[in-house]
Amino acid sequence: xxxxxxxxxxxxxxxxxxxxxxxxxxxxxxxxxxxxxxxxxxxxxxxxxxxxxxxxxxxxxxxxxxxxxxxxxxxxxxxxxxxxxxxxxxxxxxxxxxxxxxxxxxxxxxxxxxxxxxxxxxxxxxxxxxxxxxxxxxxxxxxxxxxxxxxxxxxxxxxxxxxxxxxxxxxxxx
Length: 174
Fold this sequence. Notes:
By secondary structure, this protein is mainly α. It has helices at residues 5-68, 74-154, 158-168. It has a single domain, classed as Helix Hairpins. The longest helix is centred in the middle third of the chain and has 81 residues, at 74-154.
């Protein structure tokens, strides 16, 4: 009859191993996903910033051109005003998008700080689960398996007795 603690020690060891593996892979997966999103947003911010800067330069050019026009160039002035209005609506749209992405990056930066804290906790839990695994295996071996191994060496099984007996008997047909 096996001691009931045999299953308990094995359960502790297996639980510790499963917990360690889960914590290790889950924390790294979440960490990598968040940083990939932050990097993507930073690229979008750089692209939008360059676009806004380009449109701002074009806006300044249109403003200078409009100031330099006199009353005799009214048709050109009207065309430039329409272009200026269309241009300004695009600039405002890009500025809004830039603001949204900047806010998203700030929120993700806060999340990444929390994730760094969480990663520290994950490391602590990983160590705890690994320790639990080692404890379970060690207790199982020291308190149970060692004695089972010693008992099997002292009391040979019936199969072992039969094999020794076969070795001692003379073989037929020789």
